[in-house]
Amino acid sequence: MTAPAQTDDLASLEAGLDALETHDVDRTPWWRRALASAWPPAAAVALLLLVWELVYRAGVKPTYALPSPADVGLVVLDQLRDGTLVSAIGTSVERGGLGFLIALAIGTPLGLLVGRVRTVRRGIGPILSGLQSLPSVAWVPAAIIFFGLGETAIYAVVLLGAVPSIANGMVSGIDQVPPLFLRVGRVLGARGLASARHVLLPAVLPAYLGGLRQGWAFSWRSLMAAELIVSSPELGLGLGQLLDQGRLLSDMSLVFAGILGILVVGIAVELCLFAPLERRVLRRRGLLVGT
Amino acid sequence: MTLLDTRNDRPGTALPAVRLTGVSKRFGSGPTVLDDIDLDVQQGEFVCLLGASGCGKSTLLNLVAGLDAPTVGSVEVPGGRAALMFQEAALLPWLTAAQNVELALRLRGVGKRARRERAGELLELVRLRDAGAKRVHELSGGMRQRVAMARALAQDAGVLLMDEPFAALDAITRDVLHEELVRIRASQSLTVLFVTHNVREAVRLGDRVVLLSSRPGRVAKQYAVDIAQPRRIESPEVAALSVAITDDLRAEIRRHGGQS
Q: How high does pLDDT run on average in chain A?
């Protein structure tokens, strides 16, 4: 048995073994996936509209309290045409987006600090998780007294809602980093900043993204709570203020239009931003099974 | 098969690749994990550490890797650092196979172009050149361990420490990787300190097998493996020495039963 022949043998043996043990990932085209995931919610919405129409026709409530889907549709179209709804959505999205970005800038370093420094964690950690379970609408009166009726009060409420979620996402991400990864980093010679950059932060990413996603949801909810209560003529008209206006006018169709606007924005941000981002990160790491 | 003195001193040879002198280790006020270990690993030697649970094999590797310090005694690695491979491949899942290898080079300060080139060579060495762009989850267990081996070699450390690296693999893959490791070790003239609790694996791979006792870990016995490579794990020579070592290993384990 000569040496080269033997290594060739080993090479082909290994190639065979590798081929047997790896599987090609089956990739369905994106449009088919989109179609497959689009029809169940579409059907559910259709069903909901149908039930609504039936309840309306049964006359359970007077029309001013429960308008028909068609009435609400017309009001939505009206509001879209004269630009009120679009501008209200614009105002709210701007506030929500800006608030979210500020929350991101505060929550990320805060989370790192709480996650990595033991004394900070002991001090702030419980407060941070406690804050997360406090409905941010509870902050509105305090914010109004402290900042007055203005945008600052709105942003304060948004931040109090979103910062704890983002920071907590970072903290739980840090807690979930497999110790083996950190050990490997040390064996490879990663210390301090290099370890954070090449091992810790990439490892934290999925949980951090989860925190961002929740942070956005909290920003958006807090914003609506704040806008509902903090309204004054000088303030731009956001979706929450539109809702409040509908209540004052006892215009249920306008209220429904506002709710629809809030829902659409929430779903759009989830569907267009967070879901694809998260899916990409998870797929690259093989953490996403199937589609 | 020859029984060796604890200290493998050959007069006239250069510095050993690893030298442990009177090493003891205990964690806090706990029991002694390693007790007065003297062990030399010569340049280019392949030493297998064998022992039952609680013999402190992994602790010993951590000491040599510099991840921990001995309570008493000294650990010297004259060639500088040692590379360490674990039972799990421990590849970073957000990087491709090639990027995992490149990270080891990057943390040593190797430039970008040189990094790419060297990673390519190392993947070639473990016969995974075409898998460089694959993500960790797209690789089989055996392929992952080969990438981990390429990454360990990228540390250019002179001594390769292996902590039961093949224990989680199926028997067929393990057998192939044994052959692969022997080939790579010969081509790179590596010094290897290999921890296992598989007697046959130790005899299949090592130039020398060191049997450790448990609780505390002490060097119980050493065996020179005078069987020419390539060996096969099924061969009668490997089997014969394995039987002898297993008997000694069992004798060591029986001491803990409290029956005698």
A: 88
Query: How many angstroms separate the CA of residue B182 from the nearest CA in chain A?
Result: 11
Rounded to the nearest 10 degrees, how much is the dihedral formed by the CA atoms of A260, A216, A247, A140?
A: 180
Same domain as B186, residue B141: no
**Domain CATH for B203:** 3.40.50.300
**How far B19 CA lies from chain A's nearest CA (Å)?**
19
Residues B247 and B231 reside in one and the same domain: yes
pLDDT digits (tens, 9 = 90+) for B44-68: 999 999 988 777 888 899 899 888 8
Strands B32-41 and B218-224: unpaired
The helix/strand/coil state of B133 is: coil
A203 contact residues in B (CB cutoff 8 A): 92, 94
CATH number of the domain residue A131 falls in: 1.10.3720.10
Query: Structure pTM?
Result: 0.79
pLDDT digits (tens, 9 = 90+) for A96-155: 999 999 999 999 999 999 998 889 899 988 998 888 888 888 999 999 999 988 889 999
pLDDT at B2: 46
Taking CA atoms, what residue in B is nearest to A282?
A: B94
- Residue that has been written with the tokens 């064998």 in this structure: B50
How open is the CA angle B225-B127-B130, to the nearest 5 degrees? 165
Question: Can you give the residue range of the structural domain that contains A205?
Answer: 66-284
How many separate domains does chain B show? 2
ipTM: 0.80
CB A218 within 8 A of CB A161: yes
Q: Which of A180, A188, A202 sits opposite B104 (nearest CB)?
A: A188
Q: Tokens for A89, please give them.
A: 């959505």
**Same structural domain, B65 and B127:** no
